[in-house]
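[Automated response] Your request has been received and processed.

Submitted sequence:
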Amino acid sequence: MGFQLEQSVSVDNNILLNAPLVSAFTAWLVAQVLKPLINLALTGRFNAHMLLTTGGMPSSHTATVIALTTSVAIREGLGSTLFAMCVIFSIIVIHDAMGVRAEAGKQADVINEWSRFLSDIHKDGPFKPEHLKTMLGHSFSQVFAGFILGLLSGGLITILMDLW
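Generated structure:
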């Protein structure tokens, strides 16, 4: 006994109908737009640079991978290989956002402090201070907000696209 392949396989090549992709991109876009708006609410200043930067509230990395994972869960099921791959991918990305990149940001703070110190000592010398970006990673609350945004985006967009 062998296996028989299904003859009537339908493949939709319209990328705009790919719910996991649309959900993930939408979550990223919403997170990036929210960053300067949340900053405006907290500080009274709008920083357009935050539209394209890493770090900040909410985590766009987390929102993106959770939206992707949620959409795949709805479309493919929790027992699918694709869902398992998305979960592992999400764990790696979130761990990186909270761990590795957050620690790199702390190290950049220290390097910036030393850079200022050395430039003060060598005012007339060849030393030119560099300012390293410090807002690289995320706090738990930023990741949690991205997680909620990703769940909502992935769930709502996939369900709406399935109804359409």
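Summary generated for your ticket: Helices lie at 19-43, 60-76, 81-121, 140-163. The two ends are 41 Å apart (CA to CA).
If you did not submit this request, please reply to this message.
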